[in-house]
Write a structure and sequence with these properties.
Layout (H helix, E strand, L loop, with lengths): L1 H11 L14 H39 L6 H43 L2 H51 L3
Helix pairs in contact: 2-3
Length: 170
Amino acid sequence: MLRANFFYKFFKYKKNTSNEIVKYNSNERFDLQDKIYVEILDIDKKISQNSKAIFQSQIVKFKYNFSRSNNFLHQIGKNIYIKKIDESIEWHQKQLKELYIRRKELQINLEKYKGVYWLNQIKRFLAIVLIGFFIFIGVLIFLSGFMIIIYLLPLILLVLVFNLIANKKY
C-alpha cells in the first residue's frame, strides 16, 4: 500500500503555483438543485399531458369501435382510423416511458445532491421486503385456511347428515 501511494504521489504530483484567491460560491449547489427540481416539475407536466392524450385516444377508439354503422366504406375508414389511433397510443406510451425514466434519473440526482440517496434506497428496499412479507403471509393464511377446510370436510358432512336425519319427519 505504501509503495502504491508513493508511486501515485510521484507521478500525479503537480505543484500548485497559483496564488489566486478562490471565492467559494455556496449558492451554486442550491442553484443546481433548483434547476433539477424545475426540470422534474416540467417532466411531471409533460407526463400529465401525455396521460391525458392516451386517455382521450382510448376514448375515441372505444367510441369508434362501438359505432353502429355497417357500411362498407365506413368499415374501411374504421380500419384505417383504428390503425392511426393505435399508432398514436403507442407513440404516447413510448414518450411516457421515456419521461418516467428521465424523471427517475433526475430524482436520483436530486437525492444525491441533497444527501438522502442511500436513506431513500434503504426505505425502498424495506418497503419491498415488507410488501413481499405481507404477500407471503397472506398466501400462507389462505392456503392454511383452504387446507383446514379440506381436512374438516368429512366432519362437516357428518354433521350435515346427522342434521338431515334428525330433522326428517316420519
